[in-house]
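[worker-b] picked up task from shared queue
[worker-b] task type: protein-ligand structure
[worker-b] ligand name resolved to 5,6-dimethylbenzimidazole; SMILES cross-checked against name lookup, match
[worker-b] sequence length check passed
[worker-b] input payload:
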Amino acid sequence: MLPDWVYKKCAEVSAVHREAAIAQQAQLTKPTGALGRLEQLAIELAALQATEQPRAARVPIIIFAGDHGIVAQGVSAYPQAVTIAMMANFASGGAAISVLARELGSSLEVVDAGSLAEQEMPGIVTDKPRNGTRDFSVEAALTPEELAFAFETGRRAVARAEAHQPDLLIFGEMGIGNTTTSAAIAASLLGMSAEEIAGSGTGIDAAGRAHKARVIDAAVARHGVAGASPENILRAVGGLEIAAICGAIIAAAQRRIPVLIDGFIVSVAALAAVRLNPSCQPFLLPSHQSAEQGHRLVLRALNVQPLISLDLRLGEGSGAAIALPLVRSACALHNGMATFAQANVPDRPSGPAG
Ligand SMILES: O=C(O)c1ccc[n+]([C@@H]2O[C@H](COP(=O)([O-])O)[C@@H](O)[C@H]2O)c1
Ligand SMILES: Cc1cc2nc[nH]c2cc1C
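[worker-b] inference finished, payload out:
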């Protein structure tokens, strides 16, 4: 159902560079382990990038947008028209991620992966098989061909980003209704009830959340996708921007480009990517834990620990962008600190007493 490249092995993580980075960390002028998880981050990045000097300088941001037929069931606090309006806001520089991209010196590309926009929009790449998904409470969201197209959309975006020689990539998303879609995918992949995973998204109340969970559980049962293959889950209850991100993650890992994972929706796309192609797993770097209820469960399933937890629930790649300076600090420390020998600082004595 999906293109062959989706299943091709991702780049090898370099054990040689991991060992070299571990040895380098041990020589830096600090008590062993004193930089905590930043040490691990630098070591993993060195292994992923197969380099002695891990880098997080060039980090293009790509936002994939899509609309969701499921909004007809009253599952979002905001009108569907926000998706297209925010796409224009990203492109004209007024959205949170636009500000963060400028602050970080990152390029920002907006891809219409499946919004309801009838026409091409200025400053936005249009690359979609249809306008919006079907309402998955009544029929499958996508055809197999539409799903395959969305994966290619993700791969094409990564191929364009390669021109910037990225050290890392950040993928963001925009799509009113996409926390419902993501919760349906996550519930199906994890074999859990929507009650455990569905959150308040853009801000629905407790009654709205209970309704959202019922809509999801009924749809998962209707399509019979609890515990099904990721391909069937994405076709039945998926979203075009989510499938595009899934393809983009695999394509990035195949090109040895680590990805800083954003919030709930991007993490669900990452979980589907890992289920489709487990060799992309090491290339997923955590950023933040979103306020969306199910994010903790999805991060646990991905086996990653978030760097920060600031109750963000914006999406757009904003959590990853906010966490990027920590990754940059980890690299700068790894590459720039003096060793005990260079600085003439006495190291801890080796042996049992040391
Ligand atoms: O990234 C997150 O964790 C996150 C959590 C809640 C909401 N969002 C954003 O809000 C939109 C989806 O919310 P909703 O309520 O319409 O499903 C979508 O555009 C996401 O970018 C994002
Ligand atoms: C205004 C607005 C901005 C967003 N950015 C990402 N999701 C969003 C949802 C809304 C409603």
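[worker-b] attaching auto-annotations
[worker-b] The pocket of 5,6-dimethylbenzimidazole (ligand 2) is lined by residues 78, 82, 86, 174, 202, 314-316 (CB under 6 Å).
[worker-b] releasing lock
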